[in-house]
Amino acid sequence: MVDITPRAVDAIPPAEVPEVELYHPRSWWTTYVFAQDAKVIAIQYACTALAIGLVALVLSWLMRLQLGFPDAFSFITPEAYYQFITMHGMIMVIYLLTALFLGGFGNYLIPLMVGARDMVFPYVNMLSYWIYLLAVLVLVTSFFAPGGPTGAGWTLYPPQAILSGTPGGQDWGIILMLSSLILFIIGFTMGGLNYVVTVLQGRTRGMTLMRLPLTVWGIFTATVMALLAFPALFVACVMMLFDRLLGTSFFMPAVVEMGTQLQHRGGSPLLFQHLFWFFGHPEVYIVALPAFGIVSDLISTHARKNIFGYRMMVWAIVGIGALSFVVWAHHMYVSGMNPYFGFFFATTTLIIAVPTAIKVYNWVLTLWRGDIHLTLPMLFALAFIVTFVNGGLTGLFLGNVVVDVPLSDTMFVVAHFHMVMGVAPILVVFGAIYHWYPKITGRMLNQTMGQFHFWVTFLGAYAIFFPMHYLGLVGVPRRYPELGQTAFIPDSVHTLNAFISIAALIVGFAQMVFLFNLIWSIRHGKEAGGNPWRATSLEWQTPHTPPRHGNWGKELPVVYRWAYDYSVPGAPQDFIPQNDPGTGRTAMGMA
Amino acid sequence: MAETTLTNTHMAQARPQGWRGIAADWSSDQRAFKNVSWGKAMMWIFLLSDTFIFGCFLLSYMTARMSTTVPWPNPSEVFALQIGGSDIPLILIAIMTFVLISSSGTMAMAVNFGYRHARRKTAILMLLTAVLGATFVGMQAFEWTKLIREGVRPWGNPWGAEQFGSSFFMITGFHGTHVTIGVIFLIIIARKVLRGDYDVGRRGFFTSRRGSYENVEIMGLYWHFVDLVWVFIFAFFYLW
Q1: Cα dihedral sign for A406, A408, A410, A414?
Q2: Domain spans, chain A
Q3: β-sheet bridge partners, residue B80
Q4: Residue (of A428, A432, A2) closest to A210 by Cα position
Q5: How far apart are CA A289 and CA A189, in angstroms?
Q6: Chain B residue closest to A14 (CA)?
Q7: What is the ipTM of this complex?
Q8: What pTM was estimated for this model as a whole?
Q9: Which end of chain A has fewer CB atoms at under 10 Å, N or C?
Q10: CB A427 within 8 A of CB A290
Q11: What is the pLDDT of residues B104-135, one digit of tens each?
């Protein structure tokens, strides 16, 4: 390993690349609407993502109402239920989580954390947001289109996705869905290229890759993965769009529908599944890696201790990113495959547990004998670890072919993926918002509302998803709008379903409190000052809070140390900012 | 390439060679790729992403071709032209490939002259590249027309597996779109070169960034990539 400690402070080369030519807005429109400042774009991304996420939340209530009280709501037909399920899944995974972590946190934090004035190409960055917004609008349009949105399930498996029996299959639903995804990918690529190049080429003096906060590592690796995984989804969407609009047969085998032989023949539905999951599995980590990174920083900051095993944390992120490209077919065990392939994919899937476990151990070891402050971000970070371990362990079950085959179509899988890639990353999103809101607005979020939000969300999420494991083990199938009178399903299942639904409504209500808090605290929150958490990373060292256009005033910061100099023995305070020249004695110096 | 030296790094004097050099660059501050501008780095990473798109398209096509139960049309018959009474297999594709590869040559020359700030020569060579690219697209349009006349459709064709037509139109169409976009940008950048934008550091209309002759090279990266992709399409679609 090459020595990464700076030799002497004066060896750091002069700063200011000539390419730093910011676009200076001159009007209200170019400052707040067609903005090229990454911070404004970040807020635009985040607000759009939260708005569409709210739609997905409401959809989940409607689904829970139907499952908990099957005969009470006549307007939730089976078709409507499938539409809710599809849109809920697609919005949550792509339009909320991906957009929020990469477009929202990525845009806000990357330039600030690496000490740049902006993303490398602000204009392209702006286009990225507007195309994302267009994608969201196209998606929303499908709710009002004839036939409603698609009800194909978020995986959009053909052939059913484009047949008339599926809601939206022969109407506008699937067309708008696929178009929206294609737009999203184009928009995301524009942003993603910016994030990657900014991290690789736009850092400030002294900021080596191995001094980046883990937040940046997480977002960076996730973005690289997204740039390589989204192409598969792009291709799958284009081909299915052709199948639907031009009558090609990429994914469509010969189908007899209602006694009529369709025009399609000879296509391969399995090909779609491979393309989809070559995107779909990395997508899990595209959502999880930024969460891993952010949670590392939250834990280190709020436990006043350096992150345990920084290097291993970085390599674990990179390793998980690489491994996640060779596990996709574990989503397809029930589609039928050569047993040797099943063996291969089960093995790679279980190997991913190794770097993941390294991360969990390191978080726990960071907490070990730390000066733990149970602030809201810390509470959410702790909740994340618990939830993630929980969801990860059921993932080990499902990664094995023989266990997966009987469980795959039950609520057990629903419980698993909601725990591991639904609840866990969302908890990090909340923690991150509580953590960085003071930097973004200059004010703290209200503590009382925050505590209420945390406990209801955390305990409520367990009330919702923990029982689902049991539902799955007794054999309750997923994707069914109602169970009806089925002999193998005991009465207790219905009681449990009603309980889950009530819990879901309560948790949903807590999110309204959170959204209210976000708005209320802009004006009424406690003044935060520049560095309320006494954190080390660069974004807390800006001359102004909130940071102004160009982030750093006249001079770019110079970095002298890693981002985790907390409680350094002999230091005057319990944190040393990254841009503090100090005595030259850094924790990283031991590396 | 003096103008691409953007950061005066202290490693300029004694940069280790080979793998140690790569490790040293990646563990240094500011830039992982020394003396690579933001624009060039971004184009490389975009091309990596685009490679995955074309890779997925080609793999899907191969899957369809290998798993079909009906015979696949014989490319050397389908893509034959009747010239002087005899069928010459793949003649049009051979010419198209020749034209596109030649355009890579003119592009490389344009990049060379760009770094010498030879305004006129750079612009002329870029426009020549654009003409060759447009010729390629034109011949592709001719090929499409011929096949459509013969009854090839995305949903079927007279000779066999219907995935033949759909893959053909999709993949060559997607590649043709890339070439067309390339031609448009070649013309835009050639105009900027000719007008002297890169000599006086004129700001871009949309981005308000100053351009430099390096943009010619970045354009070249894209163009060579499009050519390279064609070689794979040629090999996998026409020669297989």
Answers
A1: positive
A2: 374-441+445-525, 537-584
A3: B89
A4: A2
A5: 18
A6: B8
A7: 0.93
A8: 0.93
A9: N
A10: no
A11: 999 999 999 999 999 999 999 999 999 999 99
